[in-house]
Amino acid sequence: MSAGMEGAVALEGVTKRYGAETVVAGVSLAIPPGEFFTLLGPSGSGKTTTLSMLAGFVMADEGRVMLGGQDMTQVPPRGRGLGMVFQNYAIFPHLDVAENVAFPLTVRRAPKAEIAARVAEALEMVKLTGFERRYARQLSGGQQQRVALARAIVGHPRIVLMDEPLGALDKNLRYHMQVEIKEISRRLGTTVIYVTHDQEEALTMSDRIAIMERGRIAQMGPPRDVYEKPETAFVAAFLGEANLLPARRDGDAVAGPGGTRLLAGSGALAAPQGLLFVRPEKVAIAPAGGRTEGANSLPGQVRHASFLGNVVRYQVEVAEGATVLCDAANGAGTPLHAPGDAVRLSWRAEDSRLLAA
Ligand code: ADP
Ligand code: MG
């Protein structure tokens, strides 16, 4: 093993079939040591199967699994030296907290003194010092999740796999645990391969995200890139609210609803005809005849205004009955537009792209 490669992870053309169905189709990715990497996608897109091939629970039909620069394709799970947290990988009910956390070290027959020191350290990291003698039934959901996290990191693995670890927690606790996981992995320099179907969770936590669609990686990149520069309508819609307006290519511009000439960002005119993408928060709204922002502008009429507190979300009807969503920050002195109001929407060319339909 070459020095510095210990935390590296790679999949090379990995494929898994069940009967006639290919559930992971030639997935390749390379993750440098210390990266927080997320597999994001809808249910059934192949996230768990991909993670299970990394763990060794599922054998790939084709391709290679590389861990720490070594070919581990044929190595069973316990030879891979990984930490793991799974959604339904509950903590053992017949063991107390300290015994649960110690488990990976006990199995390895580590010396007693070392086990005690590592367990104390791991419990401190997840803020459960003092809970050593409790059992699962005496812990809240969030505390059980922290025990599972302590168990995953107690052996100081260079690579930790997590499959929807926060799925069962309520929103506040989830946010708290997201911060905790991020912080601990950064402190230990651990490579994390994280699976979630929650786009916000993926955007907050990850260095890079791979969006999976039917067993393939649809797009991969840093959160901001995949959010702002989606390459397909699927990626655009999966990562949040997206306007996808019927449009066709017209020279170096785009003909949008009503034939209005619009400009799209560079490198974003891949298709002759398709969908013009722009996020609702990039669309400015002003009274008809008011100020516009950027090269693109469309007249419309407010159909619906939802007051969300910090944001007002408008549904605006434009030509050809198309609807554009526009999120306006509820800042100081921001005027509200009412249903029926004539308005003008505008956005910058670089905030929109023409995607294949
Ligand atoms: P995800 O984690 O993204 O929800 P999975 O990897 O669990 O997706 O599943 C991907 C696809 O593979 C699904 O269609 C699922 O039904 C199928 N699948 C997963 N495991 C098996 C199995 N052991 N036998 C047959 N089909 C499976
Ligand atoms: Mg899954």
From TrEMBL:
Task: Please state the Enzyme Commission number of this protein.
Answer: 7.6.2.11
Using the UniProt record, name the top-level EC class of this enzyme in a single word.
translocase
Write down the SUPFAM superfamilies for this protein, in alphabetical order.
MOP-like, P-loop containing nucleoside triphosphate hydrolases
> Which Gene Ontology molecular function entries are recorded, alphabetically?
ATP binding
InterPro entries given in the database record: AAA+_ATPase, ABC_SmlMolc_Importer, ABC_transporter-like_ATP-bd, ABC_transporter-like_CS, Mo/tungstate-bd_C_term_dom, P-loop_NTPase, PotA-like, Transp-assoc_OB_typ2
Keyword Glycoprotein included in the entry's annotation: no
Instruction: Read off the Gene3D superfamilies from this record.
Output: P-loop containing nucleotide triphosphate hydrolases (3.40.50.300)
Q: Which family does it belong to?
A: Belongs to the ABC transporter superfamily. Spermidine/putrescine importer (TC 3.A.1.11.1) family.
Concerning PANTHER family, the annotation shows: SPERMIDINE/PUTRESCINE IMPORT ATP-BINDING PROTEIN POTA (PTHR42781), SPERMIDINE_PUTRESCINE IMPORT ATP-BINDING PROTEIN POTA (PTHR42781:SF4)
Which residues belong to any copy of the ABC transporter domain? 9-239
Q: Which reaction does it catalyse?
A: ATP + H2O + polyamine-[polyamine-binding protein]Side 1 = ADP + phosphate + polyamineSide 2 + [polyamine-binding protein]Side 1
Q: Could you tell me the gene encoding this protein?
A: potA
Q: Tell me the keywords, alphabetical order.
A: ATP-binding, Cell membrane, Membrane, Nucleotide-binding, Translocase, Transport
What is the purpose of this protein? Part of the ABC transporter complex PotABCD involved in spermidine/putrescine import. Responsible for energy coupling to the transport system.
Per UniProt, subunit arrangement is: The complex is composed of two ATP-binding proteins (PotA), two transmembrane proteins (PotB and PotC) and a solute-binding protein (PotD).
Name this protein carries in UniProt: Spermidine/putrescine import ATP-binding protein PotA
Origin: domain of life: Bacteria
